[in-house]
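Reminder to self: tokens first, then the designed residues, so the page reads top to bottom the way the pipeline ran.
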């Protein structure tokens, strides 16, 4: 612990903060990186805060590439926001560089650190309390697509290779079923069949991309509520944060992952499936907000594929939980023996609900397109 504190201080010493160092403390509810708030006193006596993060080097194998992504995207966002007369100091993350001008610092034991300007007078919500919250996150993630629609997505590094390559995830799943290293296969034949019945569906987005009818976009890949800062004054989503998983991808997958997580009436690991239902009302609200945020920058085809994105992300996620269950729970952290199986079942319940609501989902999308 002492060792850790001296690494924090080493990092603080290397980053080009303004003012006199006052102190630091752990901050926020992030699960991936170690996040701290650092205080500096300014010459006029006022206080300035910064976010300092020790990056998760286990999850992200290429921290330099990851920071190149964030640097490229945030510089681009800054220009766009200024062109639109916005406040680029609050509406995007702003990297605080090291004293020698780099976007991260590697300490003496090989940990990677980075810093951002603290976005004041705004908060993150961990749970959707009202449909309004969900709507606000939708407009923010839609606006993120709007602002980055002419960014050269193919120049970004894949910070987690094949993250939403559903056909590749499907191959891994089939291998896990075949290998059955934990002898759990017999117990989950129904879930395996559920996946196999949707075999052809897995390829829909990748095939559309290969045909040239689905564009590669800058995607966020962690489009949950608490990765949007909500302005205390206006109550609107002002800034999309947590850009570690920014990668080339499909806009409909960002859309779809929000639906997967946010348009369910139950928790992701709820064992009682009667509590887990797809909410068409929340799907409607998110669709409306996301399209408003995108301001016409998505193609007809992308909008048409919104329901497909929602189902794809939910099916893929359920399949990943099932894969992990078959492989002995080595990827997702579990708190009970069937945790991954419970998670898999909620996702498949939502997929079934979406299939039943398919026409209604299409009607919602048509209403706002
Ligand atoms: P996750 O579990 O969502 O992946 P993470 O570990 O990647 O989280 P972040 O989401 O980057 O961490 O940051 C953790 C929390 O710190 C955020 O939820 C937010 O409350 C706060 N935070 C991050 N960046 C800023 C910022 N620039 N200004 C103010 N608060 C911030
Ligand atoms: Mg986060
Ligand atoms: Mg994160």
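Designed residues (369 positions):
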């Amino acid at each position: 612990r002492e060792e850790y504190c001296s690494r924090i201080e080493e990092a603080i010493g290397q980053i080009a903060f303004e003012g006199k160092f006052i102190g630091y403390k752990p901050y926020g509810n992030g699960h991936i990186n170690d996040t701290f708030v650092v205080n500096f006193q300014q010459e006029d006596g006022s206080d300035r805060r910064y976010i300092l993060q020790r990056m998760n080097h286990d999850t992200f194998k290429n921290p330099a590439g990851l920071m190149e992504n964030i640097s490229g995207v945030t510089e681009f966002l800054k220009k766009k926001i200024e062109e639109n007369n916005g406040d680029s100091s609050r509406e995007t993350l702003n990297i605080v560089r090291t004293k020698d001008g780099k976007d991260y610092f590697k300490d003496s034991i090989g940990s990677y650190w980075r810093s951002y300007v603290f976005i004041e007078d705004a908060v993150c919500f961990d749970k959707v309390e009202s449909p309004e919250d969900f709507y606000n996150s939708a407009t923010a993630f839609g606006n993120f697509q709007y602002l980055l629609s002419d960014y050269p997505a193919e120049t970004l590094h894949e910070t987690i290779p094949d993250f939403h390559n559903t056909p590749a995830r499907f191959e891994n799943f089939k291998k896990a079923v075949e290998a059955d290293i934990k002898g759990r296969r017999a117990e989950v034949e129904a879930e395996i069949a559920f996946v196999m019945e949707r075999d052809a569906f897995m390829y829909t987005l990748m095939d559309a991309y290969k045909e040239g009818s689905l564009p590669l976009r800058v995607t966020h890949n962690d489009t949950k509520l608490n990765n949007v800062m909500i302005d205390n004054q206006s109550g609107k989503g002002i800034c999309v944060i947590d850009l570690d998983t920014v990668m080339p991808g499909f806009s409909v997958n960002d859309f779809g992952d929000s639906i997967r997580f946010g348009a369910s009436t139950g928790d992701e690991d709820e064992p009682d499936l009667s509590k887990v239902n797809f909410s068409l009302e929340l799907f409607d609200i998110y669709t409306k907000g996301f399209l408003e945020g995108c301001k016409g920058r998505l193609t007809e085809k992308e909008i048409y594929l919104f329901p497909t994105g929602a189902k794809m992300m939910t099916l893929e996620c359920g399949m990943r939980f099932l894969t992990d269950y078959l492989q002995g729970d080595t990827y997702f952290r579990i708190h009970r023996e069937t945790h991954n199986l419970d998670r898999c079942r909620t996702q498949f319940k939502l997929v079934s609900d979406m299939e039943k609501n398919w026409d209604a989902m299409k009607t919602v999308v048509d209403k706002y397109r």
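The chain has a mean pLDDT of 97.
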